[in-house]
Amino acid sequence: MSLASAPTAQSHTIRQDWTKAEVEALYALPFNDLLFQAQVVHRQHFDPNEVQVSTLLSIKTGACPEDCKYCPQSARYDTGLEKERLLEIEKVLERAKEAKQVGSTRFCMGAAWRNPRDRDMPYIVKMVEEVKALGLETCMTLGMLTRDQAVALKQAGLDYYNHNLDTSPEYYGDIITTRTYQDRLNTLENVRAAGMNVCSGGIVGMGETVGDRASMLVQLANLPEQPQSVPINMLVKVKGTPLDNVEDLDYFEFIRTIAVARIMMPKSHVRLSAGREAMNEQMQALCFMAGANSIFYGCKLLTTSNPDTHEDVLLFKKLGINTERTRDFSDEAHQQVLEEEIAQQNESDKSELFYDATAAKPQPAVAEA
Ligand code: SF4
C-alpha cells in the first residue's frame, strides 16, 4: 500500500457490509502497511496511549456440560481442574474491591454454565447490584441467555455481557458441537435488545485457516451493531483438552488479527485477551500498536494464568501508556519507585531486547463461556 492509498477519516466510518474477500485482502497486506492502516484508524477514534483495564473472576468453575475443545472447564476433558461451586457474594465483593484498588474500571464475572438456570437468577442479579454499588462497571459471561434473563441483568445494572463467537461459522463445528452458531447469535441479539453492551470476540490459533479468522471478523463486524468490546484470544493449550497438540499460530498472524479487527471495528475496544502471559513485552507493544486498547489485569483469567499486575504497570510506564490506574498513581513517590524498578528490570532484560518466538512457552488456554 502506498501513502496515497492510506486510509482517511472518511474511509473509516463504521461499515457492516464487509466481505470475506476484502478482509482476506487486509490480512494479505505487507505487515507494516497493515499496522500503519490500523494505527491511522485507531487514532481517529481513541487516544493511542490509553488502555482500558478490566479484571476477570471465575464465579463458578468447571463441570461445564459443553464440549468447547479449547476449554479446561468442560466436564468432558480430564484437565485436573479443581471445580468450584458458585462463589458467595461476599467473596466476589472482596475480589471486586481488590480489582478497584489496583485500577480496574470493569469487573467481569464468569460462570462455567451452558446457560444460567432461572433459579440462579435472583442470586446473580444481587451479585451484579452489589458489585455495581462499589462504583465499578460490571460484566458477566454465563453462557446462553434468554431475552428475559438479559432484561433482568440489565435492570440489575449489568453494563456488558460477554459471549464470544469463538471462530468462523465454517470452522465452528470442529470446535463445539453442543450449541450452534445461531444459538450464539441469538444470545447476542437478546443482550443487545435488552440494552446492554456486547462483548464478543474469538480465539485464534485453534487450527483454523486465515480464511476462518477473516470470516469470524466478518461475523463480528457485520452484526446489527458492532460489539463495544472485542476480545481477541490466543489459544494457549491445556493438557487434556482436544486442542492440546494443535500447531502453534505464528505470532505475526495474531498481531494481524488485532490490526484487522481494529480496522473493521474502529470504535470498539479490542482486547488483548488470553495468551498474553506467553507474550513478551515487545509482542504486547506491537499488539497495542496494531490497535489493541484493552487488557485484563490480574494473575488469573478464569482458570488460567495472566501476567502479574505489577508487570503490566511497568510495561505501561515504559510505553507511556495511561490507564486509570497509572493516572491514580501519578504521585511523585510512586513514579520514583516505578522508575527504579524499570531501571533494574532493564539491566536484567538487556539480553532479551528482541522478541524470540521460540521463547514463548505454551500456557493453559483460557475458558470463554
Ligand atoms: S468455554 Fe464456556 S461453555 Fe464452553 S466448555 Fe468452557 S465454560 Fe463451558
Please describe what this structure looks like.
The protein has 13 helices and 11 strands. The chain has a 9-stranded parallel beta sheet with strand order 5-4-3-2-1-9-8-7-6. Strands 10-11 form a two-stranded antiparallel sheet. Residues 1-6, 325-331 and 349-369 have low confidence and may be disordered. It is 40% helix and 13% strand. The protein starts with 19 loop residues before the first helix and ends in a 20-residue tail after the last helix. With 369 residues, the chain is of the alpha/beta class. Helix 4 (121-132) runs parallel beside helix 5 (147-156) and helix 9 runs parallel beside helix 10 (281-289). Iron/sulfur cluster is lined by residues 64, 66, 68, 71, 73-74, 112, 143, 367-369.
